[in-house]
Write a structure and sequence with these properties.
The structure holds 2 protein chains of 2 kinds. Chain A contains 43 helices and 27 strands. Chain B is built from 4 helices and 4 strands. In chain B, helix 3 crosses helix 4. Chain B has one domain: Roll (Ubiquitin Conjugating Enzyme), CATH 3.10.110. Chain B is α+β, with helices and mostly antiparallel strands. Classes of the chains: A alpha/beta, B alpha+beta. Chain B: GO terms for molecular function: ATP binding; ubiquitin conjugating enzyme activity. Chain B: Belongs to the ubiquitin-conjugating enzyme family.
Chain lengths: ~1150, ~150
Amino acid sequence: MIETEQNDSEKKRFFKDELESSQETQLIFDKSLENKSSFLFADHSVEDVPKSQAESVIPEGNVTMQVFCTELKSIIPEMSDNICEELYNKFRDSQDRLSNAITYYFEHYNNEKKDMFDQTPSSPAPAASSSSSGTPSSQWLFTQSKRRKTYGERNIERLKPNIRWKRFIGALQVTAMATRPTIRPLKYGTELKLLKTSSSPKIYDTTGRKKSTMANYVRVFDNKESRELGRFSEDIAQTIYPLLDTDEISFEVTMVYCGNKRLSIGDNFILQVDCFLSSLLFDSSKNGYAPDVNHDFHRRSWENSKKGIVETEEELQRRSRTTALISLFDKLSLRPILKEAEDTEKINKSFTNDTEVIDLEDDETLDRIMSQDSEALEATTHNEDSMNLNQLKNFYNITQSSDSLKILPETEPSKDVFKLELRKYQKQGLTWMLRREHEFEKAAGDDKEIDSNMMNPLWRQFMWPKNMSWTAQKLEDHCEDLSEDIFFYANLHTGEFSFEKPILKTMTRGGILSDEMGLGKTISTLALISTVPYDSEAIGKKLFKTETALSDTDETFKRRPYASKTSLVVVPMSLLNQWSDEFQKANASSTMYSEVYYGGNVTNLKKLLTQVKNPPTIVFTTYGIVQNEWSKLLKEHKDKDMSEPTTGLFSLDFYRIVIDEGHIIRNRSAATSKAIMNLSSKCRWVLTGTPIINRLDDLYSLVKFLALEPWSQIGYWKAFVSTPFENKNYKQAFDVVNAILEPVLLRRTKQMKDTNGKPLVELPPKEIRVEKLKLNKSQEGVYKLLLDRAESSVRSGLARGDLLKKYSTILVHILRLRQVCCDVRLIGTQDENDEDLLNSNSFFSQASDNDIMLKDALSESYECNFTQEDLDAAISRLQEKYTKKEQLKSLECSICTTEPIKFEKLIFLECGHPYCEGCLAEYFEYQKQKKLNSKCPNCRLTISSNRLLTVDRNGISDNITFIQYNNNPKSAKIAALLRHLQQLQDSSSGEHVVVFSQFSSYLDILERELSEFLPAKTTKIYKFDGRLSLKERSTILSDFQVKDFAKQKILLLSLKAGGVGLNLTCASHAFMMDPWWSPSMEDQAIDRIHRIGQQNSVNVTRFIIENSIEEKMLRIQERKRTIGEAMDADEDERRKRRIEEIKMLFE
Amino acid sequence: MHNNPQETERLISDPVPGITAEPHDDNLRYFKVSIEGPEQSPYEKGIFQLELYLPDDYPMEAPKVRFLTKIYHPNIDRLGRICLDILKTNWSPALQIRTVLLSVQALLASPNPNDPLANDVAEDWIKNEEGAKNTAREWTLLYAKKE
């Protein structure tokens, strides 16, 4: 900075004429400037640098007096030779002799100086010079020096009693315009004042837009004569106006130059405005504009949930104030220290270079500032553009994780309350969780500070500039009184200031435990609950509370009763039992127990939790219940005043709330999310393996749930996260997110290494194999038909450009294709679990009604099925005819004349005639081709391929049982699955197998087909989907896990119902019948099996139909993995991507 | 479609009295068939040569059978084609070569002039059954003499 200014010193404002007339001296002057690096701060170095030291570094000790005089005269031409000589003798040994001499001159040769001023009126009007590119540094030099002159003339302004001190932050040199003529020229150094002309002008109109200029309201006053002098330009006024009269920031204005003539209206004159921060700003109790963050309980009033956001007058003022602050800091070139400086030496070095009076009129200074800014901007934006999902992932991996494994001590839960053994990292997690709840005495380690050292990202660190104010120049000790503080911190967005480093403090007790799936979030949470089952702080108060609650007469008692001994755990329905099972397993205390709040089994929750002596430690409930109660409340209170609910979950303050799979609430406008947010508790925990599913904003719900002030206010979040992110300012957004999450989020992944370099969890290997299959004939026919139709629909959509309007239609097309890949019979079933169809059911049924072709293709083999009566009759006929097993072994197929018919291939018609399976199939096929009716070849009874019977080969007893034969050709996937299952059973019996599908009707079909084909002696089939009741779920899961070496256990699992949370480590084989859109869903499903506790290597087989839509889905999955779904912030982009995906499907 | 060797084998090893059927050496689907005229029928003592061809779709489709020997019969035309329901609409895969030939033999025993194929013969048969039977006997002697 200094160098540039030195080199640029061409003109000096005050002495323009003289300089122009003596180019020679100018050169010399320049030379001297170049040689003196600390020239500008000469007056300080005189005081600071010991003389001996100064002498030793004199570069040109033998500069002659003549040169010195020439130099001096070039600066002060009217200086007499005598004085020059005197000064030379005095300062010849000084390092900064020139500046010192000048200083001395102005200090001691007062009269001469006056003379000088008397001469200057002949110089051109300063109005011109202020806008010309005059050099601020040289000018500044003189004003600096001259200031000493005014020493005695100034009144010391008395601070108001509530302001302990004020401290200089910078000075501005400002050009003002005279609004009143003055009688005499204003004296150099005259103290002036800034005043608001009107106390509360209407600057903003009702919409919050500025309607008048602030320049109208800021006036420069002559302090002594209380007389208006002039006004500022709008730019300056906008900075100053909102800050006037606040006591927090004060301005001292000094007349610097008015051309030494009387001012007429419109004349420009130059002022120095010294800016000070007052102690008021730093009084933490009065931290100005910051929202109140000290909530003990995060309770939201009913009104709040309904109120829209309107900017009030006060908020408007606040906003203009903060804008002004930012602009002031900008103008003062007061820059935050980006890397927190810790090296004090470094600081001291830079200290002296830091401050100067900023001359806003100087274009170069401005340019420089601008270019610095834009350079910095470029540097950052360059990196940010390439930020993608993976970086985001890394980003929150880095936040905590690896460090936590080294730093965190381990807390072992007491064996008296917690039976299970925790892993090392889980113990560390427990420490962290305890700290997050401020339970330091229970947590291991001495650390009592839960918050890390992270600075609040909205705050910036600033260094106090050297006091260069006008007043400071005359009272040299003035600036030293606060010198122990080198830095201060400011949040320019809110107008908060502090001396302390603003550590990111979160009042919230709780946080986000975001360990990867399978690392035992459940166990960690249970350990936490067991270790701190109740609020010890509330125990004393509790008695009182109960009494108050009992005396219901007290109307003013607004607070919800405090269930201080209970943690509420909200989980997806499928996990309800798993949680309570885990708790039973872990709980070692006789006094702790859990209650499931589901299906109306607890009649009076409030009573149970607050008025019973030993309330349950944990209440488990589901998202559904919470949402249900909430919507009921909303309905009840629709018209009436919002009063506190009297029963249910919302009538209580819980000690702790844990929401499992917390990403469920990621959509903050969803009913469930709203309901969850409105639950009230002291501690709040979110458990989720995937805090971000689609967008950065997913996090907002979690932040809001945790009430992480101020981020939980949507305005803050929008301003600091969403908007920067949308503007592609990723770094800022992520920085803020990082800062928000850092203290409250703990995430460990399976790959992370502990201190010994071992991975956290060593899981057996898993192998995922894609098995490509071909559709069978009937599937293929239907598939082709549907594909044609889908393609033409997409093509026409693309051609017309309204593809997305028909999105749901296309989704249905796609869905049908996917269904055919699984099984033709899926078409037409309205699978309640299929998200694609949720909104398009009506369309679907309507379309299929009109769809004769499709119906034909489908119906042939699936119509005219047995009624139950027919079936029973046929079975009893058969049983009469064949009473002994031997009979079945000598039957002849009259078609192929084979005798005996192979037992496995034995099929009976209704009439009782036996045939080979194959012969009969052939016959049906032939008759169909010839469009002839099928009749029993023997008795000519009309028969149907759907009315066939066979012997139940799985029958254990010797009795012959006949069952209906299912002749439908097995779909490719079912056939493949059967093959695998049989192979598996042959190679090792008694395995547990999990079969995933997203279509619950497919699970039905699978159940039927598998049970027909696989002998019941060696197979047990379980089905788990959304239709099961809670009780059925738990029975199925516990049965499935029992090992039976004789039986292969097969669990048919619906993705929606069982994709998350379940622990199925007893199985090591899985089959994925159909691909999902989102690869992470598949990963989740696989992780049901591949997780802690898995002993064997895991084999996963994914069935994919060759050359079908499924293969393309795989490609889209791949794409999603690489592009990342988080970047979908932009609606347009999402739209584009969807179209691309559809194109991919049909190309 | 299965050309059932088992059935052929059985035809040879366990022949029906009065009926022979031998597959052709070059084409196992092609059978040379001879049927003895049933006793107490106008065709008694005659031996009738037939050809039988198993189509590709056998046994889903009926075999094709034709008289090579001239015969005077209301249900068999001059070209030797036979009007027999099981060879047409009433075919069932449960029927076999053996049963087909037995049916043909039975047809010789009881002609059905009400469902004729050779109309002139049928007319003759209805008008003058004895005369028609005599003609049939003559034809048998004439064309279907043993050796």
